[in-house]
Design brief:
Structural class: alpha/beta
Number of domains: 1
Radius of gyration: 20 Å
Number of helices: 13
Number of strands: 9
Helix content: 40-55%
Order of helices and strands: HEEEEHEHHEHEHHHHHEHEHH
Shape: globular
Largest sheet: 7 strands, mixed
Low-confidence stretches: 6-11, 17-33, 115-134
Mean pLDDT: 77
Distance between the termini: 20 Å
Strand content: 15-25%
Length: 341
């Protein structure tokens, strides 16, 4: 069992890092709304009790200190989660006047919002060919763990959803500028399926799916991985410096686009309106700093449970849980240049 556990953890760690570097729930619970601290805090946390471990992602509300302007919600997201998690997120986003969401497209049209513009056409990240390019690897990983994939679980066709991201050409220019093109392109090609690595992952996914305990341990490893890096792949110490530089640059440039869109939309909206920025958790700390430069301060926050593991139901002991946690922590303490077995 120890050999199987270590194999499963190694695979889950590799898959987690692979998915994170390429990116871009028990009944779902939200904790009581609370005042967030003044110092920017993580948008990811792990909650444990005697039987259950939960991965929770924050949505943080900001108010303007420069006169009456719309509220802004920075809504982080886990790219895989339980269907109830995405249903709760959808309800939260549907309650906002405007949602600016991430999604790299072939073309990016600049659109504005206004009360009168009710019949506008909306850019959708999932329309046309882009829907066919959903990563088979991410979908397979989600299905193996009994979870859903964000791009399939969230309805981006809502009239208040607007794409706020860079184009593929802009992304390629950033990659060329940082010199990280070859490694990044290789990762993207693997993610699209059909590669030898994708075939290996599919075999291992089938292996993990045969045992509820192995699925549970894999979910725990994924939770601990996300918690260790606080949802930000650029914080992975074992990343090659070139890839880390690329991830930092991508986050900064994509966040610049979001803030530019925010400024444009804020000029068109009334104080009674609200905007949600719906992005991966790795973007949130930088976005929060940029909001503060615009005169926005945190007001409250909500925590959404992305997914959880019932250790009693899956037969996982506390000793095994601590083994998983220690394994992940040791792996992330390794320097980038250390040879891995």
């Amino acid at each position: 069992m120890v050999v199987k556990m270590r194999f499963g953890l190694l695979f889950t760690l590799a898959a987690s890092l692979f998915l994170a570097a390429c990116s871009a729930p028990k009944a779902t619970r939200r904790t009581a709304t609370s005042e967030p601290p003044s110092v920017p805090q993580p948008y990811v946390r792990l909650i444990s009790d005697s039987n259950t471990v939960q991965l929770q992602i924050a949505s943080r509300k900001f108010f303007s200190t420069r006169g009456k302007r719309p509220f802004i919600w920075l809504t982080g997201v886990s790219h895989i989660g339980e269907p109830k998690y995405f249903a709760a997120l959808q309800h939260h986003l549907d309650g906002q006047t405007l949602v600016l969401f991430e999604g790299i497209n072939d073309l990016r049209a600049t659109k504005t919002w206004s009360d009168a513009d009710t019949n506008r056409e909306v850019d959708h990240v999932q329309s046309g060919d882009s829907q066919k390019k959903l990563s088979s690897l991410q979908v397979s990983m989600a299905e193996t763990l009994g979870l859903a994939f964000q791009l399939e679980a969230i309805d981006y066709r809502r009239p208040n959803f607007f794409n706020s991201d860079l184009s593929i050409q802009q992304i390629r220019e950033i990659i060329a500028q940082t010199g990280g093109g070859e490694s990044f392109e290789s990762l993207v090609q693997m993610m699209e399926g059909g590669s030898w690595l994708d075939a290996i992952f599919q075999v291992v996914f089938q292996f993990l799916s045969t045992s509820p305990k192995l699925r549970g341990l894999s979910k725990l490893a994924l939770m601990e991985t996300i918690g260790e890096i606080q949802g930000d792949p650029a914080q992975i110490q074992m990343l090659p410096p070139q890839l880390k530089q690329l991830l930092d640059a991508l986050i900064a440039r994509r966040n610049q686009r979001v803030v530019a869109d925010l400024k444009l939309q804020l000029a068109l909206m009334t104080p009674s309106n609200s905007i949600a920025v719906f992005y991966g958790t790795g973007h949130m700390r930088d976005l929060e700093a940029r909001l503060k430069e615009l005169g926005y301060r945190p007001a409250e926050q909500r925590w959404f449970t992305a997914f959880s593991v019932d250790m009693a139901a899956t037969g996982i002991s506390e000793t095994e849980h601590q083994f998983v946690r220690g394994f992940i922590q040791r792996e992330f303490q390794q320097p980038a240049n250390k040879e891995k077995l």
